[in-house]
From TrEMBL:
Protein name (database record): Outer membrane protein TolC
Keywords attached to this entry: Cell outer membrane, Membrane, Signal, Transmembrane, Transmembrane beta strand, Transport
A GO MF term: porin activity
Main location, first listed in the record: membrane
Record's keyword annotation contains Protein biosynthesis: no
Amino acid sequence: MKKLFLYLLFAAPMIVQAQTLSIQQLWENANQNIIYQQNQLKTQIVEQELLELKTNRIPIFYIDANLQRNLIIPTTPVPAIAFDPSAQEGAIIPLKFATKWSSKAGVQVEWNIFDAKRKVEEQQKALEIQKSQLDQQLSLQTWKNDATLAYASIVLATEQYKLTQEDTKLYEEIVSITKERYDAGREPSANYITAQQELERHQIQLYESWSVLQEADQELRKYSNLDTTQYLTSNFEDIIQNLQNWDKTNYDIKTLEVDKSISELQLASVKRQLLPNLSFNGYLGEQYFSNELKLARTEEWYGNSFVNLALRIPLSGYFTTQPTVKKIALNRDLIDKQIQDITRNEEIENNQNNFKIVAVEKKIDSFKKIQALALQNKNEQQEAYKAGRILLTVYSDALKGYHKAKQDVWQAQYDLLKLLLN
């Protein structure tokens, strides 16, 4: 039979060596889930993008070299008088101002000294990192929520399976007792048949509860490797106690607040586009001109160097940025409204949730009292049935009442757990 992962309220000494899994140990595996790791990689990517932006402040140096063969040397007509004062007026001389071979080699530098948008872009990228980190925290919160429910489902399914096992054993004993009485002529055939039918029903319930337990086991495997785990050690009370330190941050609001900050930076970026940009460009090297490819001839290399300081002042931006500024401002106002709406709804939902929690806690206390009374009644009816003082139907009703009382307690505890996770 397939290994099943049962939880134990108290671990027996003989199974201390078996590997167990508590709710705290399950939560410690949260950073191993795929969604978290994906968001972690996204954060690292945005961090590298910020580093890329910062490297733009550094001047760029590079070697610029080429070798060119002019297949057709262009001829340029020039006035002959420029070279011969005695030339006739209007006379033209065809001249060639290029050689068959030319080359260039040197070092060039480019430096964006002042970029009005650079600082804002870096700040915006830093906010994107913060937003990505919030996505990581949200994925952790969601994972822990789902994993906790999966863990609690096994706790609930295990309790139901164990109770069904106990009831099945009791009905096996009932069938045995009823058969002895029937064989001795002290029990009618109808009671014996009824006892056998009830046993079959409980065996069906046992199979169904086993199936539910297997399904819950597979669900928990989405969140933890259970290949070496044999016991879950946390019960409902343990889980609820650990939820006292639960992360209740509303990451939707946090993310919207970052989006609002990004909108404000975008607005600043549009305004800074109206500021001038200052850049520097320089070159230091030599150029080669010859009809023969003999680069070693130093006399055919000529110095070539320049520096360039460029100032770029936008003009049309003063007339074209107004729609963009208006759009960003409207988007910022929209985010404000969304934050207000979520905050208001969250406050109402929290109040509703708190009322439900109080009601469920009182319900659990009452269900536990009912369970204690149902257990007392079951034990009394069991003794009475064994003594032959009551009918099987009366004892069966007592068993069903006890079964339902325990299920009511477990279901209420599970409902409380879901409310706390909210």
